[in-house]
Prior knowledge:
Shape: elongated
Distance between the termini: 31 Å
Number of helices: 50
Radius of gyration: 54 Å
Amino acid sequence: MSHNNKLHRVLSTSVLRIPRSRYSFWQRHADDLIVTPFAQILASLRSVRNNYISLTNVQAPRESSVLCILFVIYGPADFQFSDSSVLCILFVIYGHAGLQFSDSSVLGILFVIYGTAGLQFSDSSVLCILFVIYGPADFQFSDSSVLGVLFVIYGHAGLQFSDSSVLGVLFVIYGHAGFQFSDSSVLCILFVIYGHADFQFSDSSVLCILFVIYGPAGLQFSDSSVLCILFVIYGPAGLQFSDSSVLCILFVIYGPAGLQFSDSSVLYILFVIYGHAGLQFSDSSVLCILFVMFGPAGLQFSDSSVLCILFVIYGPAGLQFSDSSVLGVLFVIYGPADFQFSDSSVLCVLFVIYGSAGLQFSDSSVLCILFVIYGPAGLQFSDSSVLCILFVIYGPAGLQFSDSSVLYILFVIYGHAGLQFSDSSVLCILFVMFGPAGLQFSDSSVLCILFVIYGPAGLQFSDSSVLGVLFVIYGPADFQFSDSSFIYGSAGLQFSDSSVLCILFVIYGHAGLQFSDSSVLGVLFVIYGSAGLQFSDSSVLGVLFVIYGPAGLQFSDSSVLCILFVIYGHAGLQFSDSSVLCILFVIYGPAGMQFSDSSVLCVLFVIYGPADFQFSDSSVLGILFVIYGHAGLQFSDSSVLCILFVIYGPADLQFSDSSFSDSSDSSVLCILFVIYGHAGLQFSDSSVLCILFVIYGSADLQFSDSSVLCILFVIYGHAGLQFSDSSVLGVLFVIYGHAGLQFSDSSVLGVLFVIYGHAGLQFSDSSVLCILFVIYGPADLQFSDSSVLCILFVIYGPAGLQFLDSSVLCILFVIYGPAGLQFSDSSVLGVLFVIYGHAGLQFSDSSVLGVLFVIYGHAGLLFFSDSSVLGVLFVIYGPAGLQFSDSSVLCVLFVIYGPAGLQFSDSSVLCILFVIYGHAGLQFSDSSVLCILFVIYGHAGLQFSDSSVLCILFVMFGPAGLQFSDSSVLCILFVIYGPAGLQFSDSSVLGVLFVIYGPADFQFSDSSVLCILFVIYGHAGLQFSDSSVLCILFVIYGHAGLQFSDS
Length: 1047
């Protein structure tokens, strides 16, 4: 009860001041009315406080703390205040309404001055100053609003901006005209330049620059369009590309030349890689893929080449070949016989794998397989070498044979035992004939010849014996000469053992030493002297030169004319080297010279002699004359009757070639007779077909003799002349009239329409269904017959007509039936579906990965997305292409610049910068707006951070804007005041003060409450410490508040 005693004393002392007349009342009732109840209240509060502290471990306010009173009055709610909190006063004055302020809140002052109206500001709000200056009118601003400054400058007109709006600056500069921009809009600059016209751009649009450069013409691009750069470079010419078109890059690189490609064309890659050379392909051409894979080597395939599908037809049988070899399929199907086809060249694969090193093979070379299997080791074989087979069978062991070596037979027969012979050794023949018994001869021994001629009887001569040669020349009669015969003397010692020169030396002495050992020229030199040295050693002309002298030098070495020249002399020089007439000239002499080289009459002349001179060179009568003799001469040279005569004999002579004196040389009836036989005789001789010339005169000379147009001309007159001479439409026009004109002149449908009527229209115009015509109706040989649809039509009937003519699906349909119809017509997946079944369906229909999956298997699925262009890159560059994302434009950069393009992120606009500026563009971050700055200012733009607002400052002020931090409010100050604003820290409230008062506020620290005091009281406010409670007192009471101590 000590507290009761203290209270009793206090109250008692206080009661002493009560008038005495009432003292007795207070004395009697003080304990009951005041002391006891108040003591009970304090005890209850203290109990609550102690219980709360014990439960929550919250530190209790100090005993002397003002908060203890607050705590006593308001309870635990006041624990949030620090002991020196200004809010305690606010809380005392305003109660719980004061709890929203932080301890150092300037709003305490606002709340003291304005009451609850000040509660809308956050603690660090600059608006407190506005509120101090303008009062409640500032309630619409958020706490960190820069608009305080605007409101200070413009008043209520600044209220339309959002809190963080940069437009404050715009409004400062342009007034109400800035209201149309979004808060973070870069377009403020555009608006400054162009005004209201910029409303259509999105906030982050790069098009603002386009609009700055081109005006409203830039509005047609979508916001993220890369074409903005194209439009900047080329102007309206760039508008033909779709927004996602990769061709924009082509257009950037090649200019308008890139416009011939459709937007989805694969050819843009070809054009990037090969330039104009890629333009020879049609847009849907399969060759574009071949050209991408194999380069120019792929150009040897015809556009309708079925070879790409061969592997589909024959399946795993092609697995013995290297993975990328197309020839594997050919070899499996046709065997080595197909190496002669240029159309199916494997070299395209070699070129892909080995580069230009693969170009040394001829198109039909078997070595392509060797090169695929063994690499460059296979290059030592000549193109026609059979050793390639040895190399395939025995491996590198076969490399010791020269290309023309006969030893490959030995090696095949005897294996490694055959390797002891030198490549040019004659012993290979001996070894073949006699077996190991032939090995006793040295490789250059003449005895090999003796052994061949005389058998073991030749072995009596020693290997170095000169008599071997004599024995060869003279036979056994030479045995009378001893080996050291006086005939040869010691001079014979300088010759090699088997040397023919020993004879030369015997005859000519040392003059014979200049010839090589096996040289034929030895003879020439013997006969002509040094004049014979101009011939190569194996030259046939050596013989000519021997016979004719220098006159024989005009012939090529292998020329057949050498024989003519030998027989006829200079008269033989008029024939070409491969001329058949050389034989005629041989037989008939100069009389054979009237025939052309390919003339059939050469045969006639051979048979009949000069009697055949009446025939022209290409006359078919040559044959008639051969068959019928002079009886065939009644026909004119170009007469069709000659054929009739050949077919029917003299029976056809009833048709005279000049049945009508004015008719052309070949009677139409002869054609009728040829086609219909005697049935054609029902036409009168005055048939319309025969008297065209009679009716129209020379006007009919424009028709060929067998022209169908003669009928058209008869029926329609000159109107029929619109058809070409061989036009099938002539028949159509005759039958259907003008209705037939819907077909093109060379249309196969003409025949279909004639035969089947409208039912024939289901075929595409370029259909190669000639085989179908052969099977189901009259066929015309002018149609190509490579159509696979003939098989479909045979198997499925009209159901097969739903495929396009060049469709790969025809094979799928043959194999899988209607299940194959889920693929699009040009789908590579046909091949995948054939090989992998339904597993191939994971690719999109136009996927290049079909080819990759065929070549690399599942390994191709790890890297590329379904529509990836990287398939081509992977084919060209291998794994180096894997670093690009699937839709990356960088694939083009990589093609153009190589690995240097790898530093760009996938969606980087810098790829275009790199194209324009080269390596200089590499310093920008990927999404940097600075790419535009760099385009405008060059290297000067590199000092900004990527998202920096300073890019705008730099645009407006140049390098002077570089001193601000990226998020600095000072950018606004700098805009308004210039370099004078640089003395403030970045988050300084003094920026605002400086705006209002100028340089006078430099003495305050950045977060100082004194800035407000200084604003209100001037220099008198400087005597307070920054956290002093007296600042509040001074604010409330002025100098009167200075009599109180800080606590």
